[in-house]
């Protein structure tokens, strides 16, 4: 049985969504954010103290984009990943990692210095600058898209989940109206997927999913 430690709204939504897309049985353990300081014993589970934590037998993973790739290759149908022989392999890897490193990271800096830090430690200019970083990178990334409606290989893959979560976070933070039109459409397409909706239901239930 796969176990996923998840914080509502956090990067771990990628892993939860991936599990639902694959139809895999899993146990969902909801933790408060940040779990390293608010969930007793969490550091014994994941020494990094970060979210997500996915445990599959002897395998422990904590990087949300990598978890999607792992699940697709280890447990899933091959079409949710892209093989090196396919023309879209490079674009797949690029967007798989772009979703976290380029599109989610600047938003987390904004969250820290505009929301999470105590008032006296907030940095409004830095927070605003990282929002512009995110939006400028998103605008540039839109130029890499084709007319398929997906980010790589002309089909839905784990790279769409990686990017889709970054867009979901941006929408939650109120940046959606500034998204380039192709990414506005991509977000709506992702939100319409049954597995995406099931993942939202699973996290709102707050109970293990078996």
Structure, briefly:
The chain has 210 residues and is an alpha+beta fold. The protein contains 10 helices and 4 strands, in the order βαβααββααααααα. The mean pLDDT is 95.
Tell me what the structure shows.
By secondary structure, this protein is α+β, with helices and mostly antiparallel strands. The chain folds into two domains: 2-78 and 195-205, Glutaredoxin (3-Layer(aba) Sandwich); 89-193, Glutathione S-transferase Yfyf (Class Pi), Chain A, domain 2, CATH 1.20.1050.10. The chain is built from ten helices and four strands; from the N terminus they run E-H-E-H-H-E-E-H-H-H-H-H-H-H. The protein has helices spanning 13-22, 35-38, 42-45, 64-75, 89-101, 105-116, 124-142, 158-172, 181-191, 194-205; strands at 2-6, 26-30, 53-56, 59-61. Strands 2-1-3-4 form a four-stranded mixed sheet, covered by helices on one side. Strand 1 (2-6), helix 1 (13-22) and strand 2 form a beta-alpha-beta unit. Helix 4 packs antiparallel against helix 5 (89-101). The longest helix is centred in the middle third of the chain and has 19 residues, at 124-142. The relative contact order is 0.16. The model has no long low-confidence stretch (mean pLDDT 95).
């Amino acid at each position: 049985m796969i176990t996923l430690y998840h914080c509502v709204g956090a990067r771990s939504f990628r892993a939860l969504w991936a599990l639902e897309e694959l139809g895999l049985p899993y146990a969902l353990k909801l933790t408060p954010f940040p779990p390293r300081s608010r969930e007793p014993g969490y550091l014994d589970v994941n020494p990094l103290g970060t979210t997500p934590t996915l445990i599959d037998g002897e395998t422990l993973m904590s990087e949300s984009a990598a978890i999607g790739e792992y699940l697709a290759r280890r447990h899933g149908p091959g079409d949710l990943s892209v093989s090196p022989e396919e023309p879209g392999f490079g674009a797949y890897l690029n967007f798989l990692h772009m979703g976290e490193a380029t599109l989610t990271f600047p938003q987390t800096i904004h969250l820290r210095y505009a929301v999470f830090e105590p008032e006296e430690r907030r940095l409004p200019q830095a927070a605003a600058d990282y929002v512009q970083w995110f939006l400028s990178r998103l605008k540039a990334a839109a130029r890499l898209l084709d007319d398929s409606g997906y980010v790589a290989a002309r089909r839905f893959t784990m790279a769409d989940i990686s990017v889709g979560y970054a867009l979901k976070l941006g929408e939650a933070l109120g940046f959606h109206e500034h998204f380039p039109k192709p990414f506005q459409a991509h977000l709506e397409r992702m939100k319409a997927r049954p597995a995406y909706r099931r993942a939202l239901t699973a996290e709102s239930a707050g109970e293990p999913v078996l």
